[in-house]
Amino acid sequence: MSESASKDSPEQAEFRQYCRTWLAANRPPDPQVRLPLSPLEIMTTEQLSYLQAWQKAAYDAGLVGCDYPREVGGGGRKDCQRVANEEMLSARTPYFPNVIGLGMAAPTVFYHAQEALKQRLLPRLFSGEDIWCQGFSEPGAGSDLASVQTFAERKGDKWVINGHKVWTSLAHFAEWMILLLRTDKSHKYDGLTYFVVPIRAALGSGVTVRPLIKITGETGFNEVIFDNLEVDDSYRLDELGKGWQVAMTTLLHERGAGELQTPRAGGLRNKGGHVTSASSLIEFARTAERDGRAAAEDPLLRDRMMQQLIREVGWTQSQRRSRVPALLDHPMRLQLQNKLLGSEISQDTAALALEVAGASASLYLGDENAPAGGQWHLAYMNSYGMTIAAGTSEVQRNILGERVLGLAKSK
Ligand SMILES: Cc1cc2nc3c(=O)[nH]c(=O)nc-3n(C[C@H](O)[C@H](O)[C@H](O)COP(=O)(O)OP(=O)(O)OC[C@H]3O[C@@H](n4cnc5c(N)ncnc54)[C@H](O)[C@@H]3O)c2cc1C
């Protein structure tokens, strides 16, 4: 029995057994198409359809939205999403495509929307039938998010939106967007208001989505242009001018905090077969050749792989600590630390994999001679995005230093 299972409440123990039985019978078949490393790089309708079918099946079986109330399409359970996530991870199921919906939009809508809107939006969000995206960043507002300039002007019961969002992951498939807008130019923070917007319905008539190509050749994120898009006031979350507070709910969940307090839906961090883990690296080193023998036999590489493994185990333990209420002296400390370290450890593991591969590390996806099918090459390039998305490493360090440790503010 795993350590988590031994601490289960009776409800969790029964649910864990149910998840195991269901997953043993219903794990989806391997996809016919190559899946990207994470849902943020889904590019084709074939990839999306396969992953959407999986999310819908898991939702129908009660493995998604477990802890949300039944009235909004949830399972009405208590602290069971974690159990479902653990079981899906050990069954090595694919990830869910609606990662922004589950991780960020769902808790934000749940805490800040009117009841009728919650009941309308959340069931299709949990099932993955409606994909969601996040319209926060702009060309002039990233780390300094409160500088958002995309403007909503009030016209009776409607709002007219104009502006430019960027790096909007999954916007090319999204039905809905969570959107941070400026409604008052004279106040920085209090001039922001938060909306949910049906962007797919407005494509070509007020909304344009333009894919951006990454260094990997993948798209995944986009520019989104709003040109006189009209939305109803009923799509506003919380009060006028309270957008910054609502955005904090989103960001808290984006960075992994709030898990204890919040009914959190699924959304596995299972990166398409765990390619970026230290144990995958060790398996890879057993097959990669270096100086006429397996790279895993090189004493210097062995040392460095062990160091990566030790860091990764430490990070996993730190994630477990974030579930211990007595250790949550500051609501963001462990979550920010875990985001910062997790993204940097993955990056270092991928960089070491390229050293293990040696000269053939330059071969990429689609080259039959590429080691491990070019997945490590892809993981290395994508790892840089992960130290930027959801707040850059520099900004996480600033927040940890200033707000958690109480150090002097950086200039
Ligand atoms: C893979 C990926 C997916 C993303 N998906 C989305 C999405 O779906 N929706 C969305 O809204 N956004 C998304 N983003 C955008 C992301 O949130 C921003 O890129 C991030 O917040 C940084 O903002 P920026 O790119 O404008 O960089 P800037 O804020 O311009 O920063 C540039 C550099 O300056 C540094 N810097 C800035 N301020 C400070 C400071 N005070 N102290 C020290 N250093 C500082 C930064 O660390 C960085 O190195 C995504 C980004 C990536 C990489």
Task: Write the SSE topology.
Elements: H1 3-6, H2 10-26, H3 45-60, H4 81-90, H5 99-112, H6 115-127, E1 132-135, E2 151-155, E3 158-166, E4 176-182, E5 192-197, E6 207-211, E7 222-232, E8 236-237, H7 243-254, H8 278-287, E9 289-290, E10 293-294, H9 299-321, H10 333-357, H11 375-386, H12 393-404
Parallel strand pairs: 1-4
Antiparallel strand pairs: 2-3, 3-7, 4-5, 5-8, 6-7, 9-10
Bound molecules: flavin-adenine dinucleotide (FAD).
CATH class group of the largest domain: Mainly Alpha
CATH topology of the largest domain: Butyryl-CoA Dehydrogenase, subunit A, domain 3
Count of helix runs? 12
Ligand set:
flavin-adenine dinucleotide
Given helix and strand content, the structural type is alpha+beta
Widest beta sheet: strand line-up? 1-4-5-8
What is the domain tally?
3
Low-pLDDT sequence parts: 259-263, 266-274
Topology pattern, helix = H, strand = E? HHHHHHEEEEEEEEHHEEHHHH
Radius of gyration: 22 Å
Largest sheet, in brief, is: 4 strands, mixed
Helix residue percentage: 40-55%
Shape: globular
What does this structure look like?
By secondary structure, the chain is of the alpha+beta class. The protein has three domains: 3-97 and 118-127, Butyryl-Coa Dehydrogenase, subunit A, domain 1; 133-242, Butyryl-CoA Dehydrogenase, subunit A, domain 2, CATH 2.40.110.10; 278-404, Butyryl-CoA Dehydrogenase, subunit A, domain 3, CATH 1.20.140. It is 41% helix and 13% strand. The protein has helices at residues 3-6, 10-26, 45-60, 81-90, 99-112, 115-127, 243-254, 278-287, 299-321, 333-357, 375-386, 393-404, and strands at 132-135, 151-155, 158-166, 176-182, 192-197, 207-211, 222-232, 236-237, 289-290, 293-294. Strands 1-4-5-8 form a four-stranded mixed beta sheet. Strands 2-3-7-6 form a four-stranded antiparallel beta sheet, with no helix packed on it. β2 and β3 form a beta hairpin. α2 runs parallel beside α4, α5 (99-112) runs antiparallel to α6 (115-127) and α5 packs across α7. Mean pLDDT is 92; it is low at 259-263 and 266-274. The site of flavin-adenine dinucleotide (FAD) has 21 residues, from β1 and α12.
